[in-house]
Amino acid sequence: MSVLRERYALAVIGAGPAGLAAATTAADLGIDSVLLDEQPAPGGQIYRAITETTLCERAVLGADYWRGGALVERFRASAAQHVPNATVWSVVQGGEIGVSIDDIARLIQAQHIILATGALERPMPIPGWTLPNVMTVGGAQILLKSSGLLAEGRVVLAGSGPLLWLFAAQHLAAGGALAALLDTTPRSNFWHAARHLPGFLASSYVGKGARLIASVRRQVRVVGNVTMLRAEGDGRLQTVVYRRGDGLEQRLASDLLLLHQGVAPNLNLALAARCRPIWDGGQLCFRAAVDAWGASAIAGIAVAGDGAGIAGAEAAALRGRLAALDAAHRLGRIDRAARDREAAPDRAALARWTRGRAFLDRLYRPARQFRVPDGDVVVCRCEEVTAREVRDAVALGAAGPNQMKAFLRCGMGPCQGRLCGLTVSELIAEARSVAPAEIGYYRLRPPVKPITLGELASLPKSAAAIKAVARG
Amino acid sequence: MAPAREHDVAVIGGGLVGSAIAWGLARLGERVAVLDEGDVAFRASRGNFALVWVQSKGLGMAPYAAWTKRSSDGWAGFAALLRAETGLDVAFQRPGGLHLCLSDAELAARHGFLMRLHNQPDMVPYEHEMLERRALEALLPEIGPEVAGASFCPLDGHCNSLRLLRALHTGMQRHGATYLANHIVDRIAPEAGGFRLETGGGAVRAGKLVLAAGNGNARLAPMVGLTVPVRPQRGQIIATERVRPFLNHPITTIRQTDEGSVQIGDSVEEAGFDDAVGLGVVSAMAERAVRMLPLLGRLNVVRSWAALRVMTQDGFPIYDQSESCPGAFVATCHSGVTLAANHALVFAPMLRDIALPAELAPFSAQRFDVPAAA
Amino acid sequence: MFRRLPEPAAASVTISVDGKPIAARVGDSVAAAVLAAGIVVCRTTPVGEAPRAPYCMMGVCFDCLVAIDGIGSRQACLVRVRDGMRVDTQHGKRRAGP
Question: Which of A79, A340, A433, C6 could pair with A27 as two cysteines, CB 3.0-4.6 Å apart?
Answer without folding.
Answer: A79
